[in-house]
Amino acid sequence: MLAAALFAAAVAIGLLLVWVTGSLILLGLGVAGILIGIVYTAPPIKLVYRGLGELAIAFAFGPILMLGAYVVQAGRLSWEAAVASVPMGILVALILYVNEVPDRFGDASVGKWTLPARLAPETVRRGYLVATLAAFAVIVAGAVGGLLPLLSLIVLAAVPLALRVHAGIGLHYNSPYTLMAVMGTNIKLHLAVGGLLLSAYLVTILVALLG
Asked: What is the mean pLDDT of residues 22-48?
């Protein structure tokens, strides 16, 4: 009942924003977000049980969330907002990904086949590294290509955090309690990248106003 009430509140707020903005794009994004929220665990689709939960979270908390916020404020979509949303979605999904590692046996026992429950430990560890590098690569490509502020390259300062998590997964893979510190660092990675990217935008805007 609580979940239904929260979904109803989200729909009501979303419809109000659609009415205020008059944007059908926003309506489409909202519908997609609600559907992902439902089919994430609801049968018969149950995305998280099929190894698709991480991808669903990346999409919902990346492009859907950020593009929705952008459309509310700007009234349109943009490639810049789309590119900026991708790394944030990847890093949010990686929070879930690492947190699933200590739950992999319990998840598998009830048919919840998350990626850590499906894959070998070394594959999980390499998957984390590939995904984080992809997140940073998107930002670098966006900055070099002119879609994001050049100052966005400051996010590379967070690369050591990603490497610490990558190493920590290998060291503490079978030790849930010591892995908790790695999980915390992984959350800090998302906060650091988001904060640095925001700072890059604020400084760029400030320089433009003063210039």
From this structure: 94
